[in-house]
Amino acid sequence: MIKPSIPKGTRDFGPVVVRKRQYIFQTIRETFELFGFQPLETPAMEQMDTLTGKYGEEGDKLIFKILDNGDILGRAQQAKDSRELGILLCEKALRYDLTIPFARFVVMNQNDLAFPFKRYQMQPVWRADKPQKGRYREFYQCDVDIVGSNSLLNEIELLMIYDSVFTKLGMEGYEIRINNRKILSALAEVAGKPALLTDITVAIDKLDKIGIEKVKEELAERGLNDSEITIIANFLNIGGNNEEKLQQLGELFKNSETGKKGIEELSYVLQSQPTAFKATPILDVTLARGLNYYTGMIVEVKAPSTVKMGSIGGGGRYDDLTGLFGLPNLSGVGISFGVDRIYDVLEELNLFPATAQQGTRVLIFNMDANTTATAFPMLAGLRARGIAAELYHEPAKMDKQMKYANKRGIPYVIIMGESEVKEGMLSIKNMVSGQQEKITAAALASYSFE
């Protein structure tokens, strides 16, 4: 006998969970549409060379490779070394995120698109990560990107999308944190190690997880000396409000054109915020986001501090992502929502509204063989009004049908027993309050199941 199980880092979702997840998806999708974005879907798998080398050293390790079909044994015997064997046997991989497949799509369809192209995408991605709370091997991302425009108005619009979605979800205390990769590039220059930008950002990106001392150790392992590490440590200690941080950055990078450009972009985004923002974006110089393709603003949304959860969204500007696929100088910017983590936060804070958990509102009891003829017109009438209704699948004792309604969480039942049929009436019971009343069959057309 096979013991039923699922792979680590994956999950089944029952009806209650799916309804709550759909509430999140619907809130995000409606916001995307309101901001003028178009839907897109791409395949679950991509060519291996589409994905590798795009996510940094750490990210490449987490790509789920797909064992190719065909003469595997024969190809294995032909391989000269392990690297060649890997290429021969794994030519495809599950997508790691939605951004790189989006870039590939844009290049393949460039002649059919109107630029700037604004798209949103809501699909699962896969990462060979160590499963833990808030971190899964299969999870959904909801991305929104604008490609073909250099305007910083796009950055502001995306920050407004974050603010709008989390406000609609009723989440209090979330934080939108932003930085700029040009600032980090300038830091690498000032530290005298511009060639080690990726190494520096990968180490800084771990600050929240491992602390400053471990970051220093990692920087040393990556080839920086004590004085260079001190420059970076001092940078990471920059504090104050947004304006004060910008002033300190201005002093540090007064001789760096790259740094000045990054400060200029940050200042524009931070100082052009609409007054209606629920959560004013915070300049966070420690924000690195270790993905190689970011070139401008980077952003991350932190869950409320009352919940032990890290980032629930992130993204940034990538000036030449499509250049990886032969279409250079096409700037883009995008953000992503971590739906699975958002779900966990809403669940922990009890923020899902009752309407997000509603399924069948009305169950018509099946009392005998004659019930069907009366029940189906009732079902049709209820469904025409947008009320989810069903008939119990077979004649059964009332107690059994009551238990079924309770287990399903159905709030109303309609009973047509002998006495009701004789009187030409219906009994409607509220399963939450326990109240029961009789109405005429005609009155059902206007009865409120609220």
Verbal overview:
This protein has 450 residues and is α+β, with helices and mostly antiparallel strands. It has two domains: 15-41 and 114-349, BirA Bifunctional Protein, domain 2 (2-Layer Sandwich); 359-446, Rossmann fold. 40% of the residues lie in helices and 18% in strands. The chain contains 17 helices and 16 strands. It has helices at 15-34, 48-51, 56-60, 72-78, 82-89, 99-108, 153-168, 181-190, 197-204, 207-221, 226-236, 242-252, 257-271, 339-348, 371-384, 398-408, 418-423, and strands spanning 38-39, 45-47, 65-66, 92-94, 117-126, 138-147, 175-180, 282-283, 297-302, 311-318, 332-338, 362-364, 389-391, 412-415, 425-430, 436-440. The strands form three sheets. It has an eight-stranded mixed beta sheet with strand order 1-5-6-11-10-9-7-8. Helix 1 packs antiparallel against helix 7 (153-168), helix 8 runs antiparallel to helix 13 (257-271) and helix 9 (197-204) packs antiparallel against helix 10 (207-221). The longest helix has 20 residues, at 15-34. It is elongated and about 90 Å long. The relative contact order is 0.11. The model has no long low-confidence stretch (mean pLDDT 89).
What structural class do helix, strand and pairing data support? alpha+beta
User: In the CATH hierarchy, what is the class of the largest domain?
Assistant: Alpha Beta
Strand order of the largest sheet: 1-5-6-11-10-9-7-8
Overall geometry: elongated
End-to-end distance, in Å? 47 Å
**Main sheet: strands, sense, barrel:** 8 strands, mixed
The level of helicity is 40-55%
SS element count, helices: 17
Q: Indicate the CATH architecture of the largest domain.
A: 2-Layer Sandwich
Q: What is the count of structural domains?
A: 2
Sequence stretches where pLDDT stays below 50 over 5 or more residues: none
Write down the Rg: 28 Å
Beta strand %: 15-25%
Task: Estimate the mean pLDDT confidence.
Answer: 89
Enter the CATH topology name of the largest domain. Answer: BirA Bifunctional Protein, domain 2
Binding site for L-histidine: 97-99, 127, 141, 145, 289, 293-294
Family: Belongs to the class-II aminoacyl-tRNA synthetase family.
EC number: 6.1.1.21
GO molecular function: ATP binding; histidine-tRNA ligase activity
